[in-house]
């Protein structure tokens, strides 16, 4: 299925029944990374698996900006009349979730994994790799990671949603950045997962489904 935002056709899939839960993938990925997680969550939640602009089956673009993608998410909720919505974002999807939660009250619960506030929040070796790859073969997805985001602690302080901040012990985002995100969002919960990397518990994994299921159930009560 498709919805429109800023003149673009953006793809999503829907599965399950219950309260709305939107899942947003990371850079250079698509909605299919969440099939296993949705298999866990669909028994209690209506899961919406989105392809961000320039990704998957959504329209391609010549440049990417996180704020535009956050506005896409808000447009999706508005067009589908979604209120009291839970959002989970991985990596770039986490950044999108943070930016959207600052701008709409439709998101009442937010979980993010491996999100960063600035390009410098990514571990140095990965920043150098992104820069080198983008020099060799320029790509809007790489430029996005090289130049954005620029989120301040004060902006994060505006988030009113119940928030869970996740990262792997061996994440691609430096742990201090993850800790700062959690510290800046009122009453958020921080979990650093032992033995996990940036996406080891997320991409085509039931682990993130189990984590979200337990957290969402707990925060509902």
Structural features, described:
This protein is an alpha/beta fold and 221 residues long. The protein has a single domain (2-220), classed as Alpha/Beta hydrolase fold, catalytic domain (Rossmann fold), CATH 3.40.50.1820. The protein is 36% helix and 25% strand. It contains 8 helices and 8 strands; from the N terminus they run βββαβαβαβαααβαβα. The protein has helices at 35-41, 66-79, 92-101, 124-136, 140-147, 153-156, 175-184, 207-220; strands at residues 2-5, 8-15, 19-24, 45-50, 85-90, 107-113, 162-170, 189-197. The radius of gyration is 16 Å and the shape is globular. The termini are far apart. The mean pLDDT is 98.
List the helices and strands and how they pair.
Elements: E1 2-5, E2 8-15, E3 19-24, H1 35-41, E4 45-50, H2 66-79, E5 85-90, H3 92-101, E6 107-113, H4 124-136, H5 140-147, H6 153-156, E7 162-170, H7 175-184, E8 189-197, H8 207-220
Parallel strand pairs: 3-4, 3-5, 5-6, 6-7, 7-8
Antiparallel strand pairs: 1-2, 2-4
Can you name the CATH architecture? 3-Layer(aba) Sandwich
Order of helices and strands: EEEHEHEHEHHHEHEH
Beta strand %: 15-25%
**Number of E-type strands:** 8
Average pLDDT value?
Answer: 98
Query: Would you give the CATH topology?
Result: Rossmann fold
CATH superfamily: Alpha/Beta hydrolase fold, catalytic domain
For the largest sheet, list the strands in their spatial order. Answer: 1-2-4-3-5-6-7-8
How many helices in DSSP terms?
Answer: 8
Helix content: 25-40%
Shape: globular
CATH class: Alpha Beta
From the helix content, strand content and strand pairing, which structural class follows? alpha/beta
Radius of gyration: 16 Å
- Measured distance between first and last alpha carbons: 33 Å
Largest sheet: 8 strands, mixed
Low-confidence stretches: none
Overall tally of domains:
1
